[in-house]
Amino acid sequence: MPYSTSEVILEQYRELIPTLEYVCATAERALGEAVRESGVMCAGVTGRVKAEASLAGKLERKNHYASIDDVTDLVGLRVITYYVDDVDKIATIVANLFDVDESEIVDKRADLSDTQFGYLSLHYLCRLPKRLCDERYPKAGTMLFEIQMRSALQHVWAEIEHDSGYKAEIECPRKWRRSYSRVASLFELADAEFMRIRDGLDRYRHDAHVLIEHGRLDEVAIDADTWKVWLEGGPFDRLNDRIAQINGSEIAEASTDGYLAAFDLLELHTLGDLARMVEEESDEAYRLAERQLADTGLDIISSTIGLQNLCVTHALKQGMGEVGLRLLFEKLGTSEHHAERRAETMLRLAND
Fold first, then answer.
1. pLDDT tens, position by position, for the chain (352 residues)?
2. Which superfamily is assigned to 5-192 in CATH?
3. Residues 45, 51, 53, 54: is their CA dihedral positive or negative?
4. Residues β-bridged to residue 107
5. Per-domain boundaries in the chain
6. Helix, strand, coil: what percent of the chain each, to 5?
7. Which of 8, 158, 160, 162 has the most CB atoms within 10 Å of its CB?
8. Which helix (H) or strand (E) holds 28?
């Protein structure tokens, strides 16, 4: 009894499995490396060889395949970007890395009209270039593989749509089409908003850096980025060096991450506020350190000692008292019990 076309294709598929696995692994590795080198942030680069059961189902649903060469997604790669505009950057990387069949590019983004919302993705059919092929797999360079490129939100939409069992609007029951369209529009809007937020933050960081460089610190709000940039100028180095000379101590680097919450407690909102605190209260912070280190013989001190003492003196100057100091130390990550003890000690030293 002669084989059907589907059975022939499945037999060809079984014979090609080693080649398909090679193409998949090679393409996934090469694309993953190229994406990492590009600096484009991606949620993932993955590849798979179509399972035999999946192929059999496809052949059963669609009977227009004449041979294995007509099935172009036996190997599939997927690149998920965080931002929708990075999809085109990935497409450029793919075009430079593989041999792309220009006639088979499918841009789902262009398939929808201005009033439609739905599945958005960019699909390329590619072959491995000769430089990536291995002579042990002579057919590797002839095998087409599909690369799907889309944003993380587009991917979520595609997975949900696929899970529903309806891949096209015309297949979906009429009563649910409008709901599908509304949700798809929200995903598209969210993609656009994430890009707008990213671009806005990039402009904010650039403008903040310029203001810092020009000394316009009262115009720069304190946040993780501006704090990091300002620290690069070593605003506490002079005070720390003075404190280190008390016992001839070595300064050990320590993290200042916890201080952002402390600044909010102390109502220090701009880098200008911090700069004035350094200028106006360093002498008192130094004298507090003298009392702290007297008769201790400590030969290693934390690089945050100057900043900590500045915050303590500032809190007392603002009339925050022992309760305020306890809250300050809790903001800096000290347990409630130890924060209370440290507050008592610092208040006593400050009043000596």
1. 346 888 888 998 899 999 999 999 999 999 999 999 999 999 989 999 999 999 888 888 877 778 888 888 899 999 999 998 999 999 999 999 999 988 766 655 445 444 444 456 789 999 999 999 999 999 999 999 999 999 998 888 777 766 665 555 555 666 666 777 777 778 888 888 999 999 999 999 999 999 999 999 999 999 999 999 999 999 999 999 999 999 889 999 998 888 999 999 999 999 999 999 999 999 999 999 999 888 787 889 999 999 999 999 999 999 998 899 999 999 988 888 898 999 898 888 888 7
2. Beta Polymerase, domain 2 (3.30.460.10)
3. positive
4. 122
5. 5-192, 224-351
6. 60, 10, 25
7. 158
8. helix 5-38
Q: Which residue has the tokens 């209370």?
A: 340
CA dihedral 33, 35, 38, 39 (to 10 degrees): -110
Structure-token pair, residue 110: 């262009």
Task: Name residues whose C-beta falls within 8 Å of residue 127's C-beta, 6 or more positions apart in sequence.
Answer: 98, 99, 101, 141, 142, 143, 144, 145
- 77 contacts 47 by C-beta, under 8 angstroms: yes
DSSP 195-261: HHHHHHHHHHHHHHHHHHHTT-GGG-B--HHHHHHHHTT-TTHHHHHHHHHHHTPEEEP---TTHHH
